[in-house]
Structure formats: C-alpha cells, structure tokens
Known about the structure:
With about 120 residues, the protein is α+β, with helices and mostly antiparallel strands. The protein is built from three helices and five strands. It has helices at about 10-15, 70-75, 85-95, and strands spanning about 5, 20-25, 40-45, 50-65, 105-115. Strands 1-3-4-5-2 form a five-stranded mixed β-sheet. Strand 3 and strand 4 form a beta hairpin. The chain is globular, with a radius of gyration of 13 Å. It starts with a strand and ends with a strand. The model has no long low-confidence stretch (mean pLDDT about 95).
Amino acid sequence: MFALNFQSQKHEKLLLDRQKNCTIRLGDVSSIYRENSIVWITTGVKYTTKRKLYSVFLDKVQVKTIAELTSKDLGNQNPDIKTVDQLIENFENIYNKKITREDTVTVIYFTEVIE
C-alpha cells in the first residue's frame, strides 16, 4: 500500500475538513502514484510516526510543468495559493531549493474511499 503523506498541520486540517482533494508533487511521480489506484492519506513529519487519516482513490494523475498548472489545480491543492508564483515560493520553502516555471510536477486528484 502506498501513502500520500502531508507534513503541514495546515494540510492536515484541510484534509480532515475534506477541503483538499488534490496534491501537487515536485517531479514526475506518476510511476509511483498510478491513476485508478487506492492509497492512504497520512500526516506526519519526515522520519516520525505517521497518522493514517483515510484511504483515497486516485482519480487523475497528470505530469506537467509548473507553468501549465491551472487555477483549479492550485485551488484544490491549497485554497490559499492563487498563483503559480505563490506555489513556487511555497515549494522553495518546502524543498529548500530554487524552483522555476519549467520544473516538472505531478498533479494528483483524489477522492475519499468510504470503508
């Protein structure tokens, strides 16, 4: 079983409130997160215990450049991020490196699986 892990407490709140149904990951991770598969949504800082929130179905997995992201992609990822430039700034803080509009990202849309 694979997991989509979220480290930020803000993302955990969005996930628990069911206000987040998309994640944008730096790089091409489409071979790990395949469309039509089921994965866990977890929270926790790297190298610490994780908490499973729920399982999700991966509805759509798309590889594109940051410049190709739509307002729908950005809004479903994080309602506070309205522009590509804001996402780049956020990613630079997360990944601690320079990010450009030409960088590849994987956009993953998911829906909760009720067990």
